[in-house]
Amino acid sequence: MISKIFLGLITQNQLENVTALTDGYESFDGLAAVDHFSTDGTYELLNKRKKDGFVEQIPYWQHHAHSMNHFLFHPKVDENTWIVLRDSGERISENFMLDIRKHIEYLEKGNINTVFHKGKVVMFKRFPNQYFVATPHWGLVGARAQQAEYDGPEFYSVRDESRDKFHFIKHYLKYYLILDSNHILLGLEKNGPAHELYPKREATRMAFRKYLADQHIDFTAEGVIDHILEHKDKLPDALRKFINSEKILNDAYRYYVLNDHDFPDDHDFKNMIKIDFPAPVSVSSEGTGNNPSSNVTDETREGTNGDAAACKLERGTNLVGSEADSRGRE
Q1: What Å distances lie between residue 132 and 43, 69, 99, 126, CA to CA?
Q2: pTM here?
Q3: DSSP state, residue 181
Q4: In this predicted model, what pLDDT tens digit does every residue of 81-112 receive, in sequence order?
Q5: Which residues contact 23 (CB under 8 A, 6 or more apart)?
Q6: What structural domains and CATH numbers belong to the chain?
């Protein structure tokens, strides 16, 4: 039995995206929305379109599951309510949205209570003892069988349409620094057994947070980038080891210090450079065509200050199990 069908989301200052996402709000019984004190009109728009749902405003405490549980536990989301989950930068196809009730009735006839798309929960029926966990990559505890996987055009993302190619650098760094973040789970399968690598990578992350705290540096992407740039001519040994041990920090160093704009967003530790000495060498695009990093080689080069200590950069070095191990034991 279907109680209600709500479109569930959390958002902040995403007026354009939320306008497009909720254009089909009439197909739902209402919105189950949490707004983190938007100032661009997002909150007002959600209120106009909430119908029999609700819009709650709470601070963002850097935890997706905390915000999502705020709408999941709302008294209007009672047993048998269906929630269709979307982020601000995600969409539902128009045809699917127009026939959402028919689709859910079909699911109910097949006793299907949870729907996934590309491994992510996108629709579920409310049962007792359900709750969201983790951030930023959340999960739903208590999702009931039977379960179905949709692989068609019903659900899609528009995030990359407005993002710069290297948006991921600050984005990943931001989530890397959050206390309860599980962002380092991404890409572990490319680097070895996840059950072995995750504790080491998390130990490195916690050690890096302690390093930042000891240096009185804010746990922000901007704070870390400014710190790296401040010391780019002579990296402290501890900072160099962190950059050599963590792909997210390594990518930030390559982009902001070496001006390297020719590496992929791939979470692969084999695609890191290794800094062997405290003094880095800037990557020059002169004479390299469109590849600003093609002059980074394995040879040792002199630093610009003439000191013997120079910077040796190596591509294709698998750093999991090398410096990552030493940081993980601290």
Answers
A1: 23, 6, 27, 12
A2: 0.81
A3: B
A4: 999 999 999 999 999 999 999 999 999 999 99
A5: none
A6: 5-159 (3.90.550), 167-328 (no CATH)
